[in-house]
Predict the 3D structure of the following.
Amino acid sequence: MSALDKIMTPVKTEMKGFETTFRESMKSRVALLDKIMHYIVKRKGKQMRPMFVFLSAKMAGGVTDSTYTAASLIELLHTATLVHDDVVDVSYERRGFFSINALWKNKIAVLAGDYLLSRGLLVALDNDEFAILKIVANAVKEMSEGELLQMEKTRNLNFDESIYYEIIQQKTASLIASCCAAGVSSTGGTDEMIENARLFGNDVGIAFQLKDDLFDFGEGTKIGKPTGIDIKEKKMTLPMIFALNNAPKSDRKRMINIIKNKGDDSKKVNEVIEYVLQSGGIEHTKSKMMEYTESAKSRLNQFPDGEAKESLIALVDYTINREK
């Protein structure tokens, strides 16, 4: 049994039922659209987000019909953002398979994303789940704002850590936060419980992104080799921000010039990687990741002990110990 399968144990039955619900929610009478939806369902990922929804609900009181609606809404909107992201990023691969835009071109991919978005909204509205819709819609708004803020700030490559955290809180953490908040809301949890769950998810999401940042420098991967992909794509990660903010002016200028203008030169990219590795940026990022990990776990103190709570704690550990 894999680590994720073990974590999923308390909600294994619910996750199985969710697969059927989710598949049904994506069906369309338009043959082309139905074919695309079928392609998406067949290539689904680890389904971490529905897992957060069901475990949060079970921890807070128990899974209800509203929980299934919340999980479907989140997964539909999340999938819509992935389809649109691949168009924006001109990416032709997703989880080792061709992306929707690679197979059906941009116009159809955008419309398929729009369809998923509308299906998500209807799943919530058809079931009068206005509170859950508000939680999730706010997350999608934050994700869009985070992407645009990142585009704005990475042009000059000189933003500080506070802006970095603002970006990843919106881009990555807000959706996981909405999973946990929606899960607890679906059980009729109090405002305080919902907010605690949201803050838990927010901390987990930030820790998740910090782990991703470390991967680019070979930390925690199976092969242990830096990839430099984020550097080539001019994405500012915490190790790099720390290195640049603590570098002498001449070094900083040289590094920024490489990132801005020489991302295709592997030798130059390796120079940046080596500089970051020597700067203490990796240790700083690991330290921050552990801070958010411990903060996340402490958010669960108000909830009763049980299998679901233990699984959520294990899911936090999985987030920072994964190898990809």
Q: What stands out?
A: The radius of gyration is 20 Å. The chain has a mean pLDDT of 88. DSSP finds 15 helices and two strands in the chain. The chain has one domain: 3-321.
